[in-house]
Amino acid sequence: MPGGAKLYSRLAPLYSAVHDGDGGPTQGMRDVYVELKRELDALSGEWKAILETDVPALNAKARVLAPDFVTVPARSGSRE
């Protein structure tokens, strides 16, 4: 998803700092987390909308356009 790699590159260091730190997260870390969570929630909502609307529409279109059979071209020579 657009922006996903940038979001991950900002979440990973935050996680590492909180995980490896001796104390609890600082207020600055908490503030950054709130901002990143808001962004992640928005991206997750977009992804859910794609799965609920775009993917079913694409599948329906594929069913309409799909052939009832599949052909395999004949082999031009045997290698046995």
Pick out its properties.
80 residues, mainly alpha, 2 helices, 0% strand, elongated
Q: What can be said about this structure in brief?
A:
The chain has helices at residues 4-20, 27-65. It is mainly alpha-helical.
Helix/strand layout:
Elements: H1 4-20, H2 27-65
Helix pairs in contact: 1-2
Helix content: over 70%
**What is the SS-derived class?**
mainly alpha
Tell me, what's the shape? elongated
Q: Which residues sit in consecutive blocks of at least 5 with pLDDT less than 50?
A: none
Largest sheet: none
Gyration radius, rounded: 24 Å
The span between the termini is 47 Å
Number of DSSP helices?
A: 2
Number of strands: 0
Task: Please report which band the strand proportion falls in: under 5%, 5-15%, 15-25%, 25-35%, 35-45% or over 45%.
Answer: under 5%
User: What's the order of the H and E elements?
Assistant: HH
How confident overall, as mean pLDDT?
85
